[in-house]
Amino acid sequence: MTPKDNHLSIYSKVFLFISAIALVVSIFVPIWRIDLDAPQYPEGLRMLISANGLGGDVEIINGLNHYIGMKTLHNEDFIEFTVLPYIIGFFALFALLTVFVNRKKVLYILFSAFVLFGILAMYDFWRWEYEYGHDLDPNAAIVVPGMAYQPPLIGFKQLLNFGAYSIPDFGGWLFIGAGVLMLLSLLIETNMLKLKKMNPLVVLLAMWFLPACGQKNPEPIKINKDNCAFCKMTIADKKFGTELITPKNRVYKFDDVKCMVGYVKENPAAVGSRFFVPDYLEPNALISVESASFIKGGTIESPMAGNIAAFGDKTKAEKHAKDTGAKILNWNEIMKK
Q1: 8 Å CB contact between 51 and 27
Q2: For the chain, is the Cβ count within 10 Å smaller at the N or the C terminus?
């Protein structure tokens, strides 16, 4: 192998540079989250795990854990929160060093060390969950023989009346994305992945971990199956079924704009949610209320007598209002009623 053959390609250098940036950002945003859903907490509870500590609804969760005998969670009990920012920073610097050293062998060492760290980190997380879920106070107020409260490493698990979801947060996706880009660099340098100049697929792969990870897309409403979160009636008309997604990405569906507005007024935690409505003329997809025009009254009849229809096209909304004797409204006016 000649010295030139041992150099990194421009693609690998770009990927490694992006990886370094992603790793630095991941130090300052939540890496993982555990969401808890229960009937008494309609908005749910969330524990955020960052490189330097815990966040979210930790105090409330600690209060609930006290009743079942679990230890309370405090940042100072975890040495990981002291060393993890430095370890992630080390890998970011290592990725940049690999770019400047410009040697394939350094890339191989970087990738191997990064994968090993990822495996050890997940094992440490599982060990932490196991200890907290199994080491219970026998004198707790609530004792269920044989019951453990270990959250899932990833995915969903039912714990008494709580549903626990354990998934990466934005920083976690950045961390995973950095690893994917390192892997792509490795495949390129071992000739397992051959790229053409300005290949669009490469750009997509390089940027796959930078979508709006915190923004959940609206879910399709299942007519005659989904129930309204406010009035509990089955959603039966796709021209009026609406949906909101809270800042914590909880999805609530409604059979009428009136029900969605009523839910927001009764649940302060829903303030700041994103709202979606069907286009009255093309109701198979949901659109945001910011891009919709609304009409109310006239011959419009919705399930819960809200009598509000949404249109993706303002001109069509105005024509329909004229034809049906309805009144044109904007979303702010609807929310104030």
Answers
A1: yes
A2: N
Instruction: Read off the pTM.
Output: 0.66
Percent of the chain predicted with pLDDT > 70: 91
Whether 234 is covered by a domain: the verdict is no
Q: Pick from 177, 203, 212, 173: which is nearest to 20 by CA?
A: 177
| Per-residue burial over 287-308, b = 16 or more CB atoms within 10 Å of its CB, e = otherwise | bebeebbbbbebebebbbebbb
Angle at 94 between CA 11 and CA 202, to 5 degrees: 20
- Which domain does 254 fall in, by range? 242-336
Whether residues 48 and 193 share a domain: the answer is yes
pLDDT band at residue 6 under the 50/70/90 scheme: confident
- Looking at the structure, do residues 249 and 181 belong to the same domain, yes or no? no
Are 65 and 139 in the same domain? Answer: yes
Beta partners for residue 54, in sequence order:
49
